[in-house]
Each structure stands twice: as C-alpha cells, then as structure tokens.
Amino acid sequence: MRAAEARPCVPAARVPVRASLAPAGPPAAPAPSAAPAPAPSAGPPAAPAPSAAPAATPSPAQGVGGRRPAPGVPGAGPGGGSASPAPGPVPRTVRRHSVRGQVLEALRSALAGGQLEPGRVYSAPALGARFGVSATPVREAMQQLASEGAVDVVPNRGFRVCVRSAAELAELAEVRALIEVPVVLRLARTVPAGRWEQLRPLAEATAAVAAAGDRAAYAEADLAFHRALLSLAGNRRLLALAEELHRSSRWPPPAPGAAAPDRAALAADAAEHTALLEALIAQDLDVVRSLVRGHISGSDA
User: Fold this and answer.
1) Where are the beta strands (DSSP E) in the chain?
2) Average pLDDT for residues 105-123, to the nearest whole number?
3) Per-residue confidence (pLDDT) for residue 261, from 0 to 100
4) Does residue 94 sit in helix, strand or coil?
5) Whole-number pLDDT of residue 125
6) What is residue 44's predicted lDDT score, i.e. its pLDDT?
7) Contacts 24+ apart (CB under 8 A), 163-166
C-alpha cells in the first residue's frame, strides 16, 4: 500500500527534482522521505537526501549557476526553478526607473531651453509619444517637476508650464540670498584655499558651456557648481532646499515671449563663478558677500 501511495507523490509538483531522487535508493525508502509527516522514521532512508544534492546539481547548474542563486532566494528549496524568476524583476525595475530619469532630464532640458512654452498645457500621452515612451514615466517625471515648482497639475488635461513673473523671480532670489550668503560667508572663514581650488574645474565647465550658448546645459552646469560649493557646509537639508530654489528660479523665461539669456549674458554669469572662487581663496568677505548677492539676483532677474 505504501509503495502504491508513494508513486503519485513523485510527479506532483517537483518532477525535475524528485525524478533524480527516484533511482537513488530502493523503492521503499522514498516513501517515508517523500511525506513530510514521518520525519522520525527517516533514519535509514536519510541517505538519499545527501545524494539529492549531487544528483540535482548538474541540471540547475548548467544555466543559472546551481549554488549561487539558491542563497539569494529566501526559502528556496532544492528545486532550482525558484531561482530563475528572481533575477527577472530586477532588470525591469531598473529599466523603469532609468526611463523615468531619462524623461525627467529631457523635460528639464526642454524647460531650460524653452522648448516647453510657459503657460501651455502638455499631456503625458502626447509627451510620451514625443519621447517614444509610455505615458507612465512622463507622468511620474512631471509629478517631480510639479514638486519643484516647474509645472502645475491641470486635472484631466496634463501639466501647465509655470510662468514666472518678475516679482516671483525677485522673491526666489531673496530667499536664495537669505540661505546662501551667510553659508558661503561662513565657509569663506573656514575652508582652506586648496579646497576652493578643487571647484575650479566646475567653474571652467560653466564658462565652456556658456560660450557654446547652450542654455539647458548651462542651467545644469551652474547648478553643479552651486551644489558643490554649498555641499561643503555638510548640511543635506540645506543643500536640497537650495537646489529646489535654484531650479525654480531657472525654469522658464519671466513671461511668454520674453527674451531669454543670450550667450553674452551666460558668459557674464559664468565669469562670476571664477571671481567668487578668487575671493573665497583670498578670504575677502566683503567681495564674497557682494558677489554672491549680485550673482543670485543677476542670474534670476
């Protein structure tokens, strides 16, 4: 009776694994080991269990690596089948976040470069078709831009690019000055000259991009310089707030049809980075204060 009951358990759910165990011992031995209840009586038949590892190793090890995937999957049994689905979701998740990040950067460039017009409403499906992606990563990227103050959510329509008035830009500049001026002055008193020299390549990068007249690239290069400068304060919350204000002040022109910064204006703005570094190295606090205030108000006006 037991031999007849043991046969239906062999092809139940783990045919690839149990099939290799079948020839390992006499037919009576697999009956107690196959059922989980009679564990105590598995004294003599315990021998087939060790032989299961060598027997089952060749088939899973051929493709997935045998022993490597099993520890990475919690609760993975002797069957290597549970190891194959594990790597599946990982690339898909990475690819989705990668697409969202790429769309976000593309939208930021389009905003800074003026390809997305202030005051106009854009739908996620239309932008997705433009970028060759689905509407989901576009919608996620637009939600991020909405949190940064670059766009407004228009229910059932999409996202409207914000229009910055001169008064709004002046308010942003005032808040930025309240944060950045005292921080940079404190750093000017404590940071050694050699550390400021390490920021010179970033200042030179802004000058090179300004000379090319690429407004979108200049917005990112300018942000990179200010981020590196303020990061010396060691305050992550301050850094995040300063970056949010910086992006909000950089997005669209003050109004539809308003003149955007030309190449000469970008070059003058970039030159202030180098002048600020020189003042910081010399620890000339008065010049540092004047340059930071002028740079923020001039770039945001």
Assistant:
1) 121-122, 151-154, 158-161
2) 86
3) 64
4) helix
5) 94
6) 47
7) 163/118, 163/119, 163/252, 163/254, 163/255, 163/256, 164/118, 164/249, 164/251, 164/252, 164/253, 164/254, 164/255, 165/254, 165/255, 166/254, 166/301
* pLDDT attached to residue 51: 44
How buried is 95 (Cβ within 10 angstroms: 0-12 exposed, 13-18 middle, 19+ buried)?
A: exposed
Q: Please, what is the Cα angle at 244 between 104 and 206, to 5 degrees?
A: 75
Judged by phi (left if over 0) then psi (alpha if -120 to 50, else beta), residue 180 lies in: alpha
pLDDT tens string 266-301 = 999 999 999 999 999 999 999 999 999 999 987 433
3-state secondary structure of 217: helix
Angle at 103 between CA 215 and CA 145, to 5 degrees: 70
DSSP 238-296: HHHHHHHHHHHHHSS-SSTTPPPP-HHHHHHHHHHHHHHHHHHHHT-HHHHHHHHHHHH
Q: Is the pLDDT of residue 192 over 80?
A: yes
Residue whose pair of structure tokens reads 């299961």 in the numeric block: 52
Kindly report the length of the chain: 301
Q: What is the maximum alpha-carbon separation in the chain?
A: 98
